[in-house]
# Entry
Amino acid sequence: FCAGVERALKIAEYLLKNSPETVYCLKEIVHNRQIVNDLERRGLVFVKDINAVPRRGTVLFSAHGVTPAVRDMAREFELNAVDATCHFVNKVHSEVRRYASAGYTILLIGHRKHDEIIGVAGEAPASVKVIENTDEAEKVSVPDPGKVAVMTQTTLSVDDTARVINVLRRRFPSLKLPAGSDICYATQNRQKAVRSFAGNADVFIVLGARNSSNSNRLVEVAGAAGCKAFLVSEIKE
# Structure
């Protein structure tokens, strides 16, 4: 696991051992079914909506992060909110707030239904436009082409993201990019490893969850290298 996931799981472990009351987790703490099932067996209660957490209860925010609106609701309900958001994800949240406050339109590259993108976009809904691919990059319109910034989900394909950014750079020459890549180092390194092996393999099997962006991207990277690739989430598969 990457550092962000390790940290989130350590926080969950600590709460299970030390909290005198039931601990609730908003959404899956990480996209890994075996981990989630294990934590459920040990007493962590996963909920899809913050309204499902009893008033003044303890809630854990997953590694994917949440919207400011969810944080506001946690305060309103007097919840003991414990934040396990990945530091890399927090960096993207911070960048969105900074550019939005300066009047920029933020083009957020990622999967619009992914928990991470929902949380990041929630920082400035009026200023953020989510882009999933090069087609959307070609069509997106902005109020001021001279004030556009781009951020990305942390678990995207490095190659696919580069292609989308190239389109945006062509369309918006003054495009502002983050000082460093928003795609986390662990994601980049794992994709590089898959790319280096895929050319010498007949079949590539990625062990991961169906709803894991990282796992799905690894399958795509192997396939793009010309290797038959499969995502396997359970031993019986």
